[in-house]
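Teaching note: in complex prediction, the entire set of molecules is handled at once rather than each chain in isolation. The prompt given to students was simply: 'Predict the structure of this complex.' The entities are:
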Amino acid sequence: MVMKPKHDQKFLRQAISTIPLRLRLGRDLRRLLKRGHPWVFAEALRQCPTAAPGTPVILLDHRKGEEIGRGFYDSQSALAVRMCTVEASETINDTWAEKRFTRALSLRQTLFFSQNGTGQTTGFRLFNGEGDGLPGLVVDVYGDTAVLQLDGDGANGFWHSLGIAEWVAQKLSLKCVYERPRTRGDLGRALVGIKPTAPIAFLENRIHFTAEVVQGQKTGFFLDQRENRQQIRQVAAGKRVLNLFGYTGGFSVYAGLGGASHVTTVDLAKPAIETAKHHWQLNGLPANQHQTIVGDAFEFLEQANKRHTQWELVIIDPPSFASAKKAVPQALTAYQKLVAAGASATTPAGLLAMASCSSHVTLNDFLEVCTEGISTAKRRATVLVINGQPPDHPTPLALPEFRYLKFVLMRVE
Ligand code: SAH
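The expected output is the structure of the full assembly:
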């Protein structure tokens, strides 16, 4: 019997000799896939044989069985095939993977390591899954540490996280690469270096923050709001600011540095609020200009509205209310309620910033909800900014589902 080496590829789990599964489409998705939409749902396949998650796949068209491209498979998931390439000439191996890694790194070098930018922002997303042509693979960098996250069993069976971590650590001279599993309760492991015992320090636009990479939300910080926080810094001067769902105070610190006269940060999570206080001090802001509240944002707004308390700038960045499509109607109702209550808590001609990170809620839906909410509050509004994710969170043009973040800054009359 010939023993095959377990990993003859550094970045992929499958041995180079693994024969890909040939799966045929049940309907005509050729155009969509060739345009760069990288997802095939189980219902679009002619058959879904059981196979190990992450098994490499050659996808064939529904009519003549011609090859469309290559990807990997998860027979247990509704998202059955994630495409790696639709170029006929491309083979999926280490060389392919490294080409994609290098392309992703090069974009971040342009964004953050340029002559002017060097050292100002050391917290960024290095690999954004499908947006970097790396399905299901996310790597966030915080200073000397990176956090790797694989999305789902397919990605876990396909990518070899240890080899990837070593590549990233070497290219960026990192001390540690930590893997955060998506399953709750599992705290993960260090792939390179040792498990961090304290939050990791990094800079965002020269502002000091820390990321709780082991236990914090997401990979430790909400890097995707970087540009929207800048926007808030630009308009905060002299204003009394309310930051709801504030987490570790990202928006609050930017508002403070932008010259806000006072900032109130509200979040349900006590550890996050403790860190928000710390971040405020870390940036030399006066403690008496920051009030922190551990509590429910809906209740806080209700109380504020009862007392007719208002702020000149209100920021509302709630968690995703719709993690599945069927939760969308409920989510829209919750957003609308927040917009209405938020508008009532905004002074005349004050500013209201509203965000949604739910991929199932479209920008149009969200603007509609804002319109309804403002109207419920018997106010009118002018849109100053509509924004989404920053360029270190790239998305395939053909995959609108990947553009999950919406940020709307309004002046409320
Ligand atoms: N704006 C933040 C990210 C917010 S994430 C930033 O830029 O970093 C959403 C936050 O909402 C989490 O910190 C979570 O603890 C908090 N949260 C969830 N439900 C809440 C509620 N009902 N009231 C207040 N905070 C809540």
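Point out the following to students. Residues 14-85 form a domain with the Archaeosine Trna-guanine Transglycosylase; Chain: A, domain 4 fold (CATH 2.30.130.10). The pocket of S-adenosyl-L-homocysteine is lined by residues 217, 222, 225, 245-248, 250-251, 266-269, 272, 296-298, 317-319 (CB under 6 Å).
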